[in-house]
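To the wet lab folks,

You asked to see what we're planning to order before we commit. Fair enough. Below is the target structure as tokens, and below that is the sequence we designed to fit it. If anything looks off to you, flag it before the synthesis order goes out.
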């Protein structure tokens, strides 16, 4: 049975855990501005509270979190063949893609600046945490046993939005994006590539994503920005 614990010293009283929990495991003590685990025996192990907690002070033990293997591309192709149905992406027009891109760009910018307003300097941690969460939705990457093989597979996964070349030297990785999918988004909004909040979030996102797969914690350097951006991940 899942066991939920909450480190009270880390709780900021935001109530997000009690708001999102589908089975009301948490209560909120208004006088103390504190969330408490009130009904751990009701926990179903969905881990929603873990992902949403901004302080990362919640843990759920004694539960096996399965990776979403339905997201593996070869499995998706098999399902398409079984259902005899085309994926939505194959029937979208160029105008549909352009309209979707405008919407996504606006939402990304709004989210980035909202994070700065609410979390201040903690945005780097948010970027890394987002990379860790994203890793759980790319289960096929865990099949690779070397960093080189991992990066090669990631090239295929992110082609079209984040085209990149890479070099691996020991524990260090260089990734040359040509171009980064965010370059036009940032510059069209009048911000400087590499220094924009959205860029900084994504630098740490990549560090968190690759670090999760490789089981390493990387430092991030971005010595070159522009239509071609160079990012270095070092131990």
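Sequence we intend to order:
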């Amino acid at each position: 049975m899942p066991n939920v614990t909450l480190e009270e010293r880390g709780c900021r009283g935001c109530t997000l855990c009690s708001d999102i929990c589908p089975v009301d495991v948490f209560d909120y003590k208004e006088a103390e501005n504190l969330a408490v685990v009130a009904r751990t025996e009701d926990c179903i192990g969905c881990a929603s509270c873990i992902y949403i907690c901004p302080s990362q002070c919640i843990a759920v033990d004694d539960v096996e979190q399965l990776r979403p293997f339905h997201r593996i591309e070869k499995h998706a192709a098999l399902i398409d063949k079984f259902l005899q149905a085309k994926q939505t992406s194959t029937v979208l027009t160029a105008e549909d893609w352009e309209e979707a891109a405008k919407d996504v760009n606006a939402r990304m910018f709004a989210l980035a600046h909202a994070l700065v307003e609410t979390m201040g300097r903690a945005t780097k941690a948010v970027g890394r945490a987002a990379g860790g969460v994203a890793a759980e939705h790319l289960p096929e990457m865990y099949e690779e046993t070397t960093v080189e093989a991992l990066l090669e597979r990631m090239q295929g996964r992110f082609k079209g939005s984040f085209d990149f070349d890479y070099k691996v030297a020991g524990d260090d990785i260089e990734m040359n994006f040509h171009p980064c999918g965010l370059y036009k988004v940032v510059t069209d909004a009048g911000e400087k590539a590499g220094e924009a909040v959205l860029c900084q979030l994504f630098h740490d996102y990549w560090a968190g994503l690759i670090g999760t797969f490789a089981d390493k914690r990387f430092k991030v350097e971005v010595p070159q920005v522009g239509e071609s951006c160079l990012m270095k991940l070092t131990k």
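Structural context that might help your review: The first strand starts at residue 3 and ends at 6. Residues 94-119 form the longest helix (26 residues).

Thanks,
Computational group
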